Automatic annotation (TrEMBL):
Residues 152-180 form the Transposable element P transposase-like RNase H C-terminal domain. Residues 1-45 form the Transposable element P transposase-like GTP-binding insertion domain. This is Keratin, type II cytoskeletal 75. Pfam families: TNP-like_GBD, TNP-like_RNaseH_C. It comes from the Eukaryota. InterPro entries: TNP-like_GBD, TNP-like_RNaseH_C.
Length: 209
C-alpha cells in the first residue's frame, strides 16, 4: 500500500474534476472528498512556510489555541463554536453519515457496507481530540509563544520501523522472538553504517533509517 495514492484520490483536484464533469449522483462524493482533503491538510503541515509556498492556508502552523481549524474539526473553545462558518464540523459530518445509514430501511449487513467502520470512527475522533488537546497545551506552556507544525505529530518512524521488521522476516507472518531480535540487530547495524532504505510506505525522518 502507498498512503500517498489515497491522499491523491481524496484531493481537491479530484473533487474539482468531478464537479466540472457534472456527472449525476456525485454531489455527496465530491463533498466527501473535500471534507477529507481538508482534514488531511489540517493535520499535515510539515514546515513553517508551507501554507505560503503552496497558497494553502490549511497547512499553516498552529499559533493560537483558538485557531478556527479546531472549530471546523469539531473541538472548538467556548465562544468559538462558529469559527467554521456555514460548514458542519468534520466530526458532525461523519457522525451524521452514521445516523443517516442507521435510519435506512435496509438490512444490518448492508448498513455496515454503507458507513465507515466503528474502528475508523473511533480512531478519527480520538486523533482529532488528542491532536487539538496536545497543540493547545503546548501553545499554552510555550514561553515565549511558539508555533506548532501538525506533521510533528506523526507515527511515520514507528510505522517505518515495523515495515522494515515485516520485510526482514520474509515469508514468515508470525515471527518469533529470536527472528524479531535478529532483524533488530540487522537494522541497528544498517543504521550505524548509514544505509538508508529508499522504498517504504512512509517517509524517512532520520538519516540512516
Amino acid at each position: 500500500m502507498k498512503v500517498k495514492y489515497a491522499a491523491h484520490v481524496l484531493s481537491n483536484t479530484v473533487a474539482n474534476d468531478l464537479e466540472f464533469k457534472k456527472w449525476p449522483h456525485t454531489s455527496e462524493t465530491i463533498r466527501f472528498i473535500r471534507y477529507h482533503n481538508k482534514f488531511f491538510d489540517f493535520l499535515n503541515g510539515a514546515f513553517r512556510d508551507q501554507g505560503t509556498r503552496t497558497r494553502n492556508e490549511n497547512l499553516e502552523p498552529y499559533t493560537d489555541v483558538n485557531d478556527k481549524r479546531f472549530s471546523w474539526l469539531g473541538v472548538p473553545n467556548p465562544g468559538h463554536e462558529n469559527d467554521h462558518g456555514n460548514e458542519i464540523t468534520y466530526l458532525d459530518y461523519i457522525k451524521g453519515w452514521k445516523d443517516q445509514v442507521k435510519n435506512m430501511p435496509i438490512s444490518a449487513k448492508l448498513k455496515e457496507k454503507k458507513k465507515l467502520s466503528w474502528q475508523v470512527m473511533h480512531g478519527t475522533e480520538t486523533t482529532i481530540r488528542a491532536f487539538a488537546g496536545a497543540v493547545r497545551l503546548m501553545l499554552q506552556l510555550a514561553e515565549p509563544p511558539q508555533f506548532i507544525l501538525a506533521r510533528a505529530f506523526s507515527q511515520d518512524p514507528l510505522e517505518q520501523h515495523f515495515s522494515l521488521q515485516r520485510s526482514g522476516c520474509g515469508g514468515s507472518r508470525n515471527p518469533n522472538v529470536n527472528q524479531f531480535l535478529g532483524k533488530q540487530v540487522s537494522l541497528a547495524i544498517q543504521q550505524d553504517l548509514g544505509i538508508k532504505k529508499r522504498k517504504a510506505n512512509v517517509e524517512a525522518t532520520h538519516e540512516g533509517v
